[in-house]
Each structure stands twice: as C-alpha cells, then as structure tokens.
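Can you give me the bound-state structure? Components:
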Amino acid sequence: MSDGAPDAAFLNGQATRDAWLVDRGLHFGDGVFETISCRAGRPRFLKLHLERLMHGCRRLSLGAIDESGLRACIMQLAAEAGTCIVKVIVTRGHAVARGYAFTGDERPTQIVLRYPTSEAPAQNPLCVGISSMRLGENPLLAGLKHLNRLEQVLAQKQRQEQQLDELLMLSSSGKLVSGTMSNVFLVKDGRVLTPSLDMCGVAGIMRRVVLREAARAGMPCEERVLDHEDLQSATELFLSSSRLGVVSVADLEGHALRATDITRKIQQLIAPLLAGAVDE
Amino acid sequence: MSDGAPDAAFLNGQATRDAWLVDRGLHFGDGVFETISCRAGRPRFLKLHLERLMHGCRRLSLGAIDESGLRACIMQLAAEAGTCIVKVIVTRGHAVARGYAFTGDERPTQIVLRYPTSEAPAQNPLCVGISSMRLGENPLLAGLKHLNRLEQVLAQKQRQEQQLDELLMLSSSGKLVSGTMSNVFLVKDGRVLTPSLDMCGVAGIMRRVVLREAARAGMPCEERVLDHEDLQSATELFLSSSRLGVVSVADLEGHALRATDITRKIQQLIAPLLAGAVDE
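Here's the bound-state model for the whole set.
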C-alpha cells in the first residue's frame, strides 16, 4: 500500500502545496513530545527531558535526531524569556510512502515551541476525581510521551465538566495508572507508592525525580501494580508534573485527605530543584 | 493549564511562524480521517465515508465541519484523476489553549489529499499472521477512524519484518479485532462472522458494505465477540478494506485455508459495487 506522495491537496477548501500536510505526526500521531517548565531563563530538568525524548525516539524507531540542535533551540527560547513552557515535538517526518508502514528513510520533523506563562502555578491542595474512562493497555507504548493523546483529550473534557482539578485514571484491566496530566503517588503504611507503568501511562519526569530524591533520602518509595482498593486505603495522595512539581490531594471523590509529614518531606526534598532550575 | 498561543517557534532548527505547528491534530492526534478509493474519476462509497467522518467528528465533539465543501474537494480531485486514493483528515484545528483540554472555540482543519495509484491492487489470496502486539481497549474511541494510529504503525513494522500480507490483531483482553489495515471475517458452521468493535478497532466502510449486502442476500452474517479459538476453528477467512475490497486468506500462520462458495458469494455480491463506483 505504498503509493508515494500526494499530487494535489486542499487545505480548508483552498488548493495548497504545503509540505507539512504529509507529516506522519499529523496522519498517525507518529512521534513523541516533551513539555519543559522554564524558570529564570533556564529549562528545568532539561537533561532528563532530552533523555526521555531520545528514549522515545529509539522505542518508535524514529530516524536520526539532531539532539544538540534541539537543546540549543530550547536553551535559546528559555533564555529569551523569564518564565515559560517550552514544548518539543519530534515526529517521524514527512511520509515517504502512503499508509501506516514506515520505510526507514523518513527524516524526523523537530519542532520547538515557547508558550509564555505568567508565574509559577498555585500549589493549593487539589480536588480530584476518578475518570469513568479507562486507558487502553499496550506495553509497547507504555511509559512513552507519544503523540497519541486522544484519551487524555477526552478525559480532560470530563474533568472540566466535573469542575475538578484532576481526574485519576484506571487502565482497562482496572489498574491505577495516573492523572490525565500528572502522575500519582499514594502513601500507605508509611510507604510512598506509585503505579508501575508497564501497560500504559506516561513516565513523567517529576515522577522520576520524586522516586530518585526519596530513594536518596532513604524514604521507602516504590513502583508497584496498584488498583482502586489501594487508592481508597491510602492515607495521603499527591500528584506530580513538570509544571506543578508535587501537589497534595485534599479531596478524592468527596473524601477529605490531608498531607502529612511524608508528602511535606517529598515537597521539601524537591523544592530546591524546582526553585534552582538546576540544569540536569 | 491554558496559556494561549506560542510566542516563538523553531522548525528543524529554523525560527518560524508557521501556523500549522499549533494544530491539535499534530499535538494529540485529535481528529479523524478517511481513505477513499476512487475509480473512473468517482470516489467509491463517498456517502458512507462522509457519514462515518461526520459521526467521528460528533463523537470527538469537533467543531462545525463544512461537509459540502469537503465533498466538493473530494469530487474534484477524483474527477481530475482516473484511479487514485483520496485521503481526508479533519482535526480539531489550531489550539486555542495549551494542554490537552479543548475550549470548544477551535475551528476544525479540513485536509483533502490525492495519492496517484496505478490500477486496482492484486486480489491474490493472502498470507496472514497474528500480531504479538495487542490493541488497547477504549470503548469511547472504538470504531472511530481517529488519528491515534501508533499501534497500527508498529504492527505494520512487524508485518513487514515477517514478510506477510497482513497481521490479524487481538485486543489486550484476547478478543479478535481486525487486521492492521483491514477488517476480518470468518466463516464457521456456514455463518459469516466479524468481530464486534465495541472495545477497539476501526469500523471499516467495506466491512459495513459486506454486512449489508450479505443481509440483503439472506446470508447468515453477524457481528460477534470472537477470540483466537474462533479464528482457529474457522473454515475460511477473508479480509475487507476500501482499497482491496474483499480478499480471501490462503494461509493463516502456516495453515492452509481455501475460499469456498461463501467467500466467493460475498465477492460476487460486492463486485458490481466496486466496479461501478456507485456514488453511495
């Protein structure tokens, strides 16, 4: 089913020769992305973001990426702004052949976008629900921040309708996975637990930082297969994201929760990393 | 997390103001598509393709679509070429806000592409395997021809490596779904069966035509939840796609199968529709 390039195209009713119309990122969500929080002109956790990006490109067998070129663009956009968000998108590039199959001759499209943001977002404890939509399971895509995000788009719509700060999501087989735009941690019997992401979900950078800093501080903290029951028996809950850092959950489906020493200890551990915009 | 539009961008290392870089089709695969086979200057099953496209747009709550404008573009591109494939992509459009959530103020991006094709593809019986990759389940997305197609991209890679014509796919819970780029039918006890698509898979136009024509001809034919065992006990198998029509499977994982009267009857039923390029 490989029939080469299109010989004619319309965009919103107008004839066009725009080359981006054949990008496999658009056609299939065939690529990965990163959302990097920048403070004081420096991209936070840049090394970790680029590491995950390159890992994703390898997992999807994308072609050669100009990593140093990408880093330079990110650094320049961050330096020119005080506080901002830099989003990186890497797709497999323009289709060489029609259809799902790739040939290996595609050259990746590398996009870097800067979004102005006023200042650090509020860190108030969150009101959280559980989405009625479950996430599809696929170990080959699990953990990747790939461009197939319709599940998150639909879950966000549900979150808005319910006027909640975030919705937690279970997988189709009933395992706890994450929030729609965050990772989740729960505290149970004095241990910090976060869902394994072998079947679905995005392995967040802040999640990784939390796991690492907790381990360094000697706090019991681990990835584990968790379900709805674990969630209900948790004594505290917190969410992590590159944008928000670590934020405690005050209310889960109408049940009040409160941050104890453990969540606060985690927040204290990562606070210098968030504030200092360490280039790591 | 809505921070508006980007204020700077790089595309492959070059500063740019290209507007398409904020399209939600690219960022999230937030949209749907159709692949329409055109013969003798006419798009085959255009009415059914547009019906499915509009249904997908409604299911994803995309904004207003200019359906008659789309139809005109498709008709024009098909008329100018003899045999071709016209692909339609409709995305939610440029992002109004950053992040997964949509505001409802987005205006859909409507793309129509024409791919030249030489003539009708070969109709030789196919050698087919079963993919080791399973499809994630999500009833909210099931049946839609949406732009989140990384599973198909990866499955096609596997198909190429195995040098097979097609791979059949099971869902994460072990149900038979479809091929990577086709729908599947099996014949068992004289009945024609095709997998229900309530949990995943694409509800193909040719699949719909086969079900309709079989029903009209009084042949026992139904959608049903099917698994690997049903596949193994099938006496014959055939695949359907807009491009290929109905093609019988000659070999499933090394086991020879042959088309009997039933597959041939189905092929005879749809042959006039395929040849005549009926505008339906």
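A couple of observations. The mean pLDDT of chain A is 94. Chain A has seven helices and 15 strands.
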